[in-house]
Amino acid sequence: MSFIELKHLNKFYPISGAKDFQALKDINLSLDKGELVSIIGESGSGKSTLMNLLGGLDSQFSGEITVDGKKMSTFKDQDFVNYHKEKIGFVFQSFNLVSHLSVLDNVTLAMTLSNVDKKTRNERAKEVLKQLGLEEQYHKKPSQLSGGQKQRVAIARALVNDPDIIIADEPTGALDSQTTDQVLDIIQEIAKTGKLVIMVTHSEKVAARSTRVVTIDDGKIIGDVRQGELQTHENTFGLEKKAKSKNLSFFAAIRLALLNMKEKLGRNILIALGGSIGIMSVIVMLSLGAGVNDYLTKTMNANVNPLVSEVKMPIARGSNASSSVAADSSVMATTPAGTRPSGPPAGVTQSDPFAEENLQELRNIPHVAELNLAYTSFTIGSDNVIYEGSKYAFMTFGTTSGMTDSNILYGTFPAEGEILVTEGIANQMGATAEEAIGKEVTLSVTIDGEKLEKNYVISGIYTAGQSIGAFESVYISSESFDLLTAENNLEVKPNVVYLVSDDPKNTQAIKDEVATLGYRGSSADMLASTFTKMLDIFTYILSGVAGISLFVSAIMILTVLYISVVERTQEIGVIKAIGGRKKDIRRIFVSESFLIGLFSGLLGVGIAYLITVVGNIIVQNLFDTAILNMTPAFAIFGIVTSIIISMLSGLLPAQKAASLDPVEALRHD
Ligand SMILES: Nc1ncnc2c1ncn2[C@@H]1O[C@H](COP(=O)(O)OP(=O)(O)OP(=O)(O)O)[C@@H](O)[C@H]1O
């Protein structure tokens, strides 16, 4: 049995709307290793059709092609891949070298696809290139070579995997007569090493150099002439059969993608820039949200003891508390233990007092080191400071438990018989904050529905910080408060509790637990959490709007990769012809989109960083605070998002590239 046997081979091309066209008609042919066969015939006679079938580029035929005892009609996809990798090498009229790869990379491409290690593949390629007189050309690009050199590189590429069969389609068609002779010498030499060389040619001169001339006309063999034997000898190309081939590695795919991207550097920089705009906008928006949030939290917490959490009972449904100011009007979902008395009289908003079981519940919260009891009330119009016969109204009255030094603007904490007032009260009294200290006033407050009056000396000016403190307030020490209520035969239970944490790090956990149990936190805390929620929503909306540009860049990447597939159609054909699997081609294109995503992401993060730095310098000058807070998490998020979007956009073009028909791809101009 011959190495290749064609039996009753027919090829029909489907023509839409017409009868199938029969390009090959009952071809019977036996070919053996060591033969140099020329296939000649008129244009359109079926030569290329026959070559495509022999080369396994086209698997649609009837009849049988048997190669080395194996029937091609039974080949699966992987059999064709192996056939291309191990059995066959192609040489094309137009060379079909990959323009962005060096001579060495073009020749090693088949081995790269088989994941042969770099050293072995370079050694083997250099050996073959040297045999073909190309030792000076390893690092040149195809465009820097003469026609003859290009064809020799293409021959080296066909030979490097030591195939049994070389198929050459008009290998000298694009060469002048002197170069034609050189190339024919090489081809003849290859056949002498015991390979089967099949050439398609129009040239009498080329046909004359072969051992057998098969003539085709109108899809039929009309002549088969043998003209002498070749003096076959050992393989002079120094190639040993390689080990079982593996598949294209991830790193090799990235390298191939990088080489192609380098070739179109300008275009790729522009794509990365385009892609980076969306990433950059999203990161800047997120940084802005985080920065504003930080600023607000910092401002709100500036005068708050980091160890202390303020706790109040939840507002009883149906009490007048629901008509009080927004900061106090929060109804909790759950109700803590304990009973609640009915609400205070109209015009007075008092938090409900804590029962012993409530206090116990709060004491049991993890990390609570200390529990301070306090009293506070919020009134509209009924509480006053009376100074020299005039009344100055204030809204908040309470004890100083839970305050820090930072709450004292001037003066000292109140001792017994002393009070703290806000600067606004001092000013209403016609005094500056400093002047008010030491002044004697009468305090008139409503507690548990009783109007109480007593004289006090102002010991200091109270401040709640920059953001909260709009309400005028008066504070006395717990001891003074107990004295005041005792003197009036009132028994007032604490309605504010200050929980002191064992570590500032645990304060938030305590606050969270307080909320979970259904108690209220401080007004500042509640305001802060409302602000934070609003800011989060605002940030997400802004980032979403910025995200639209991500969608635009996804479409841009998709388009560019589609164009790239069209540009590289021939290259894809070559990769298939030398044993590249669909998967390998997909991998090369997906790698390219991965790299585009990576570069866009890095660029986006870089630009966003610059914007935050410059933006913060400007804002710092204007408002004395930084407002853009770009965290490493945002940078990572930006890069990962960019890569994901880019790879998703690359999937369709990669799929298109992988499913190209090799015959059509190779014919593509
Ligand atoms: N994809 C196809 N669909 C339909 N008909 C085709 C297709 N490819 C080739 N043919 C037809 O099959 C016949 C043989 O074509 P083929 O390309 O094999 O000829 P050829 O001998 O190689 O010609 P040339 O020397 O000009 O390259 C021609 O009539 C051609 O029009």
Structure, explained:
Keywords: Amino-acid transport, ATP-binding, Cell inner membrane, Cell membrane, Membrane, Nucleotide-binding, Transmembrane, Transmembrane helix, Transport. The protein is α+β, with helices and mostly antiparallel strands. The chain has three domains: 4-246, P-loop containing nucleotide triphosphate hydrolases (Rossmann fold), CATH 3.40.50.300; 263-298 and 532-667, no CATH class; 304-522, no CATH class. The strands form four sheets. Strands 12, 14, 15, 16, 17, 18, 19, 20, 21 and 22 form a ten-stranded mixed β-sheet that branches. Strand 15 (384-387) and strand 16 (390-393) form a beta hairpin. Helix 8 (250-263) packs across helix 17, helix 9 (265-301) crosses helix 17 (582-623) and helix 17 (582-623) packs antiparallel against helix 18 (632-658). It is rod-shaped, with a radius of gyration of 44 Å. Mean pLDDT is 84; it is low at 317-347. The protein binds adenosine-5'-triphosphate (ATP).
